[in-house]
Amino acid sequence: MPNEADGSGEDDGTRDALAARRGLDDPVYAPAEDSGLLAEAAAERARGVVLEVGTGSGWVAERTAEVEGVSRVLGSDVNPHACRRARERGVEAVRASLVDPFRDRAFDTVLFNPPYLPTDPDAEWGDWQEAALSGGESGRELIEPFLEDVGRVLAPSGTVLLLVSSLTGFGEVVEHAVDCGFRAETVVEESFPYETLSVLALSLDN
Ligand SMILES: C[S@@+](CC[C@H](N)C(=O)[O-])C[C@H]1O[C@@H](n2cnc3c(N)ncnc32)[C@H](O)[C@@H]1O
C-alpha cells in the first residue's frame, strides 16, 4: 500500500496525493505491492478451503484458487462494490465484516491484507477507499478484532496469513497475535522506501 501518511506533515493532502497516484475515485482497492506479497505467501502456504477477508478486487483470491492443494476460495468484504468486482473475476464473494458470519472451524486458511495506515481522526475522508486504507489512529483498529475472532473459524491445524506493515507496528501485531493464542512466523518480507511489508503465518496449538 503506497503511503503518503509517513510523517511528512502532509495529512491534509493524503487523500489527494493518493488519488493522484492510484485513482482513488474507484471505490475498490487496486492490487498493489501488499496484494502481491499476500498472493506470494498464499502460493506457498494456502491449502484446503480458503477465506480471503477484505478481498477487494478479488485479485489475491483469484490467484489463490490456482494454488495446488486449494479446494475452494471464498472472498468477503464490507464494501459491496468490492464484492461485485470480485464476483466479476469469478470469485465467490459475500458481504461481511471480518469473520462475523462464518461457522466455527470452517476454513483451513484465512488470508487478510487489512486496512492498516495509521490515520489522524481529523484527516479521515469517509469513503470506501478510507475503509480500504485506514487502520484508525494505531493502524491496528481492524487487525486487533480480526485476531481476536479468526481462531474461531480456523479448522484444526489451519493457518492465518496476515499482511503486516512496519507502519502498523510489527511487534505490536505479533504481541497481540500471541495474546490471542497464535504462534507467529514470517513467511515473506519485502522492504520499500516508505515501509517494510511482511506476511505472518499464524497457527493455533490444537
Ligand atoms: C488493503 S485492501 C486489500 C484488498 C485486497 N485484498 C488486496 O490485497 O488487493 C483492504 C480491504 O479490506 C476491506 N475491509 C475494510 N474493513 C473491513 C471489514 N470490517 N471486514 C471485511 N473487509 C473489510 C476493504 O473494503 C478493502 O477491500
Automatic annotation (TrEMBL):
Database matches in PROSITE patterns: N6_MTASE (PS00092)
Name this protein carries in UniProt: Methyltransferase domain-containing protein
Sequence similarity: Belongs to the eukaryotic/archaeal PrmC-related family.
Listed Basic and acidic residues bias regions: 12-25
Signal peptide: none
The keyword Kinase is annotated on this UniProt entry: no
Keyword Methyltransferase: yes
Domain Methyltransferase: 50-112
Biological process terms in GO annotation: methylation
UniProt region (Disordered), positions on chain: 1-27
